Amino acid sequence: MNTIKNKITGLCICMFMVSYNHQAQTKKAIPKSYTLEGNIKGLEDGMAVKLIPGATHLSEVAVAETTIKEGKFSITGKLNEPRLFYVSFGKNKGSIPVLVENSKIKLTAEAEVSKEDGRINFKNEVVSGSKSHDYYKKETAFKEQLNKDYVEYHKGTEELGKLYSKARVAGNKKVTDSIGNTPEWKAFEAKEKAFFAKVQSSSENLITKHKATWWGPFFMMTQYSYFTPDQKPVFEQFSEVAKKSYYGQLVDKDLNPKSLIGTSVANFKLNDKDGKPLSVKEIVAGKKYILIDFWASWCAPCRKEIPNLKTAYANYAEKGFEVLSISIDKDEKAWQKALAQENMQWPNLYDDDKVSKAFNVKTIPATYLVDGKGIIISDNLRGAALEEKLKELLKS
After folding, report:
1. What is the pLDDT of residues 7-26, one digit of tens each?
2. Which of 37, 31, 48 is closest to 82 using CA atoms?
3. Whole-prediction pTM value?
4. Which of 266, 261, 269, 264 is nearest to 347 (CA)?
């Protein structure tokens, strides 16, 4: 009997030791750093390779740099949680996004370098070894269908679209009304509305699906190129774990920037639509109050606010009120096109990415009301709130 008991006890001890050793090996096997190995065909030796943070809504500097040798490179580092990086080649001539985690990751691709401007296009990109990257690709695969939908609803209306755009830029309302009343254009607008509704719902569903983890704020950063106050409820749905994650903290800072009320505005110089540099000092000379308005051509709330700015400008410009609009567009042509469409009568400048950073602009539209001494006295005034404030300040 004791022999049987001893055998059973010995078996339990062996099973415990096997289980313990397995857990120890499993725990030990979890990597604490990453190695990103690249093999890119078509690039010359010595070309710079940089690892640049992505999904931050900022122009980031590289966290690591190396060079290509025989098409290969290797970068190592440590992360607290998965992060999106752009593997950038040359002097920012081309890049490949990779979701990096603490593991051994391999990147392969074929590069085609343009003889005209040195731009690098990639094909057959393959990222292996990162489960986070695999999941990212899986969860955003719906974008391929959206791209197809976009091309599809534009078919047959290309020429009509060019005519409409040309007439709108020229301010020819007769032509735009004429085109806008055609069955073809009305059908196009209906398809376009349905398309953007699908884009919005797809993005919102993706974010909401991941509201309990860091993926939620991460997808929020990737699905929105810039935040507006309308996105605050989206952030509030996240769990505390999600909010405290790396990307959760980035979203929070973007949505809730530190107030600048009471601080002085430094003099800065930016180019207008003709490429002429203008300083704030020149623009605001002799003015009592200046509304500095950060906007972008693609920002619907910004464009919607322009009629309100025009009303305020018409009512108070003669009393010492000025508006200074600064576009944060990355595409200067898009900005120029929007200027022609909106016909704003006040100074409009193009951001160099430094001025918006100095104002800590995280969401747009972003407005700062400045007095004649250059002190910010209020922010985020729009619509009726702006009208009321100007009425109070310029009542005399």
Report:
1. 444 444 444 444 445 454 44
2. 31
3. 0.69
4. 269
